[in-house]
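EI: anyone free to look at a 118-residue chain?
SC: sure, send it
EI:
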Amino acid sequence: MTGVMTEINAEMRRCIDSCLNCHATCEATLSYCMARDGAYADRTRMLILLDCAEICRTSAGFLLRGSALHLQTCATCAEICTECADWCNRLQRDSVMKQCAATCRECAQSCEEMAKMH
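SC: here you go
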């Protein structure tokens, strides 16, 4: 599907907000992890946080621009957010990691719903 959408509805606005929140949370969590040693600085965890932050920003941009291609970016965003949440949950005793996981899961759910809308 290609083309341009013209109107941002309430569901899209909710997804945009969720994506932007997840982007900010993953960026902050990345900095938090970089300041620690051991399991926090795991290379895979660092990369998934970066990937998640980037796809969330990208998905929000597609939605804000009204791109009909948001279906693909939202589907990918949901997948990556779920993976990131799983990695953050491995350190769930830490409140920052627990919050990041919850934020990623919320974004994944919002993006899944968005990807199935049309």
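EI: Residues 10-115 form a domain with the Substrate Binding Domain Of Dnak; Chain:A; Domain 2 fold (CATH 1.20.1270.360).
SC: 👍
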